DNA sequence: AACTTCCTCAACCGCCAGGCT
DNA sequence: CAGCCTGGCGGTTGAGGAAGT
């Protein structure tokens, strides 16, 4: 039927990923970095196509991902960005650090779309539906369900004010009727808008944390000591967020957004007894995993008898340097 | 408790754009 | 410039869990 599959699917596994597969992929990418995805499954000993590996990594395994529901502010940003960009989920996602296009797309289709419809707003055009007034009047329960967001949307002018100086104590101003005025905006203008730091976003909306965030990798498992700098994270964490971090007994940290950064240090606080000096490192709080990781990394051959980390890797453009490998504490 | 329906979201599919030869 | 390869994107699907009957 026309197009050839992206790869030879004979014998390739499909469907949900197992923990073991995840571990193989994680260990491989942490060791070798991201390069030719087509080669990854073979080299990592996975019976998956490269595309599947890439998707799994970018949508689920990446350490810098936020998990859990979008915060109200993120949701508002999505709505506003969607009004400007349409279904360009990757563009929208690029404005929401730690969120993937897939996640945003899903959230849009399952939550925001319905919410907008019930508010009498066409989720495609972002304009009021013809029978909007009737609908909104007939939805008192829904109003109660999402009171904070909708109150704001009804009361405030309609645009994420990217330019205004963010006041951590003040809910950002967002409105919903921007489509007509903003649809024609140049995309580069949109992209030029300030990027909000993941933590900052949450601080703005939820005083530091979205309570239903459930990172796939716990924050205290992937921690980078955050040098007291003038970064947006630290500068914006003036009051509430800092307190919350302290309350949680977490150190200042940043999600590891660039694992190629050779200065990366990972602090596993769950093992304070072992690693109290921040030098002990374990990405995942799982001794079994670590031992398996070591096994995976140290073994010359995978279960299929393929060379896992043979010299041919040097042909690829992206290799993790020794220092990077050490930084991950894998060797 | 058993069954059905609804909902969510991880994963897949096919297409497209860009880089390379 | 054409053809190939790869990564990325957006639409769609379907398994599994939640909610309803």
Description:
The chain is mostly helical and 331 residues long. 43% of the residues lie in helices and 0% in strands. It contains 17 helices and no strands. It has helices at 19-32, 40-44, 50-61, 72-85, 89-94, 101-118, 132-137, 140-145, 147-155, 179-182, 187-191, 198-206, 232-236, 240-247, 272-275, 287-298, 322-327. Helix 1 crosses helix 16. The longest helix has 18 residues, at 101-118. The protein is elongated, with a radius of gyration of 22 Å. Residues 1-6, 133-188 and 190-331 have low confidence and may be disordered. The chain binds a DNA duplex (21 and 21 nucleotides) through helix 3 and helix 6. One of its GO terms (biological process) is regulation of DNA-templated transcription. InterPro entries: Homeodomain-like_sf, Myb_dom, Myb_TF_plants, SANT/Myb. GO terms for molecular function: transcription cis-regulatory region binding. It holds the Pfam family Myb_DNA-binding. It is found in: Nucleus.
Largest sheet: none
Strand content: under 5%
Mean of pLDDT: 56
Oligomer: single chain
Q: Termini distance? A: 47 Å
Number of separate helices: 17
Assign the structural class, choosing from mainly alpha, mainly beta, alpha/beta, alpha+beta, or little secondary structure.
mainly alpha
H/E series, N to C?
Answer: HHHHHHHHHHHHHHHHH
The count of strands amounts to 0
Overall shape:
elongated
Cα-atom Rg, whole angstroms? Answer: 22 Å
Helical residue percent?
40-55%
Low-pLDDT parts are 1-6, 133-188, 190-331
């Amino acid at each position: 039927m026309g197009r050839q599959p992206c790869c030879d699917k004979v014998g390739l596994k499909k469907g949900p990923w197992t923990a073991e597969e995840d571990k193989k992929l994680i260990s491989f990418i942490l060791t070798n970095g991201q390069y030719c995805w087509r080669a990854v499954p073979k080299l990592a000993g996975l019976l998956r196509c490269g595309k599947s590996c890439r998707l799994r990594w970018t949508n689920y395994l990446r350490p810098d991902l936020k998990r859990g529901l979008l915060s109200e502010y993120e949701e508002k940003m999505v709505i506003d960005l969607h009004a400007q960009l349409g279904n360009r989920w990757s563009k929208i996602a690029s404005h929401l650090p730690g969120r993937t296009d897939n996640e945003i797309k899903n959230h849009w289709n399952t939550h925001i779309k319905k919410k907008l419809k019930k508010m009498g707003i066409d989720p495609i055009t972002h304009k009021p539906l013809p029978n909007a007034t009737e609908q909104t009047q007939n939805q008192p329960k829904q109003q109660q369900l999402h009171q904070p967001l909708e109150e704001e949307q009804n009361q405030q002018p309609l645009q994420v004010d990217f330019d205004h100086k963010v006041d951590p104590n003040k809910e950002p101003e967002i409105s919903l009727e921007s489509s007509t005025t903003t649809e024609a905006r140049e995309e580069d203008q949109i992209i030029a808008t300030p990027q909000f730091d993941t933590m900052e976003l949450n601080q703005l909306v939820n005083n530091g944390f979205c309570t239903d965030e459930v990172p796939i990798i716990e924050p205290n498992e992937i921690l980078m000591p955050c040098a007291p700098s003038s970064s947006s994270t630290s500068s914006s964490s003036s009051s509430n967020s800092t307190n919350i971090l302290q309350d949680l007994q977490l150190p200042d940290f940043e999600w590891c957004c660039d694992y190629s950064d050779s200065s990366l240090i990972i602090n596993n606080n769950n093992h304070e007894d072992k690693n109290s000096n921040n030098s002990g490192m374990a990405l995942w709080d799982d001794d079994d995993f670590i031992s398996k990781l070591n096994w995976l990394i140290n073994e010359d051959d995978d279960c299929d008898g393929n060379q896992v980390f043979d010299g041919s890797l040097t042909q690829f453009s992206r290799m993790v340097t020794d220092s990077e490998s050490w930084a991950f504490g894998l060797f």
